[in-house]
From TrEMBL:
Pfam families: PIN_3, VapC50_C. Residues 4-117 form the PIN domain. Residues 133-188 form the VapC50 C-terminal domain. SUPFAM superfamilies: PIN domain-like. It comes from Sanguibacter biliveldensis. This is PIN domain-containing protein. InterPro entries: PIN-like_dom_sf (IPR029060), PIN_dom (IPR002716), VapC50_C (IPR058652). It comes from the Bacteria. The lineage of its organism: Bacteria, Bacillati, Actinomycetota, Actinomycetes, Micrococcales. GO terms for molecular function: hydrolase activity; metal ion binding; nuclease activity. Keywords: Hydrolase, Magnesium, Metal-binding, Nuclease.
Length: 191
């Protein structure tokens, strides 16, 4: 099973996060992140909730609970010891250095991010590639489309939205909102 570092911008959108982590639950890949990614996720998740009218204390509590649930579900996902490598890659945006450091220390071959252009290949170790969430989703569901489809079924069943979203609705949103059209097509074909 391969490992991938998931950037904050990939984990912040709820449905995208649920989808990618559901694929990991089905052992299609191993997710990795750093304490810096989780800290940033907690901050942005709280801001998102406040923007939706949730009080700051409740938003902070909810964001903290999200990170706690992620760390409990994937207790080996948080890479430690990456800090000495932070700042050693000469990336255009120094704030992205921790992603590469976590990938190297965690043994990940992939960094999944929306900021692909901020991680130029000529600045990365040869064994680390950078990919968008849509491309990563396609590559991952193609490993075992039936198991990936089962992950979506389970995800749709446990998401407590009102109204509940069907598998078809989830796949449509993944395609329309997150650009995962190709992955959604593979999943539809796996029924």
């Amino acid at each position: 099973m391969f490992s991938a570092v998931l950037d904050t911008c990939v984990l912040w959108p709820s449905l995208q996060r649920d989808f990618l982590l559901s694929l990991a639950v089905e052992n299609l890949y191993r997710p990795l992140w750093s304490s810096a990614i989780l800290k940033e996720l907690e901050m942005h998740e709280a801001r998102k909730l406040v923007g939706r009218g949730v009080s700051m204390p409740d938003a902070d509590r909810s964001a903290r609970r999200l990170v706690e649930q992620m760390t409990a579900a994937f207790d080996d996902a948080c890479v430690s010891g990456w800090e000495p490598l932070d700042g050693t890659y000469g990336l255009p945006d120094r704030d992205d250095e921790h992603l590469v450091a976590a990938a190297v220390v965690g043994g990940a071959g992939t960094i999944v991010t929306m900021n692909v252009r901020d991680l130029p290949a000529d600045r990365l170790p040869a064994h680390v590639q950078v990919t968008s969430p849509a491309d990563f989703a396609l590559e991952t569901v193609e490993i075992d489309p039936e198991r990936a489809f089962e992950a979506v079924v389970k995800m749709a069943e446990r998401r407590w939205r009102d109204p509940v979203q069907s598998v078809d609705q989830v796949l449509m949103i993944l395609g329309d909102r997150y650009g995962m059209v190709a992955a959604a097509a593979v999943l539809k074909g796996a029924r």
